Amino acid sequence: MPRIVSAQSDAGLIALYDPSLLRARVKAPSSWWSSAPFGTPERAAGHLAIWPLGGGRAATRPHRLRLGDALDPGEALFACGRSEAAPLRVEGEELFLGPAERLPGDGAGDRLPALPDGGGLYPAPAPGRYTAVVHVLDWKSEGRFWTEDNEPTPDAPPDFVVVLTPCEEPVAAEPEPTPLLDLLPKKTPTASKKVSFATRPPPRSSEPERPRRSRRARPKASAEPSRLARKQERIMVRALEPGQLGVGARVRHAVYGIGEVRFMREGFPKVKVHFPGHGFQKVDKDELSLL
To answer: For 135, how many CA atoms within 13 A lie in the half-sphere containing its CB?
Structure first.
């Protein structure tokens, strides 16, 4: 089975490089790449391929990565987009794929030990010039790839597959790559977003008004519903059809797990979901998959 590594980047960047070509940066300040990650000489020379994740908070969550020379048939079923080709030179015996924070600097990077969510090393192909293309896979709505603990199953596809292809002519690096998470299809909820309210006016008494016993006038009963009556308003929500996102739908979130939509409003990107063990959370609609 193809080896998949996990990568979590607070900078929201995924990097691929031949460590033997970046040894000169081991003693450089660790921030040598951070101010302009897409404008370094190493990237222009093909010694470093780097891609932004995008997607807001979703960029800093762990992502599953794989490096290979082609998509597997099972992965191709979920492929939904791909990045532009980036140049990459190979001279050593290994390639590193993982978060950009593991680029060399401040004396680190000569060795790349295994770290949790820190990417990993792959055997390098034959020395030469290559192009690197990231294929984005949209598989998280498939319930068969999740365990009862809301963890991916061993046969779950990766989120991104980096495919290396030999090339003879140099390829220019794209000035600023499209964020990978932006290549995922936009989730368009089709549930009924309109909620109708049924109000109940306060009961009217049939007894005649009693005479006043003091000089102080008593306030007249309001014709509008009282505050208590408004709190007791009954919200009637249309039943959801299969595949619709709306109030009452069961959804899965990559961080909070399985929950139930309790509130959503037309034109707003966020919904309120109740997750057992996490309470009510406001999350983006794009971060949810229907169950």
So the answer is: 21
Q: Considering the entire predicted model, what is its pTM?
A: 0.70
In Å, what is the CA distance from 164 to each residue of 75, 104, 126, 159, 226?
A: 16, 22, 11, 17, 68
CA–CA gap between residue 177 and residue 47 (Å, rounded)? 16
- The verdict on residue 218 lying in a domain is no
Q: Are residues 145 and 192 in the same domain?
A: no
pLDDT in tens, 189-219: 544 444 443 444 455 555 555 656 655 555 5
Q: Which residues have CB under 8 Å from 115's CB, separation 6+?
A: 102
Q: How does 131-156 read in b/e, with b if 16+ C-beta sit within 10 Å?
A: bbbbbbbbbbbeeebbeeeeebeeeb
Token look-up 């993982």 returns 98
111 and 19 within one domain: yes
Is the distance from CB of 137 to CB of 64 less than 8 angstroms? no
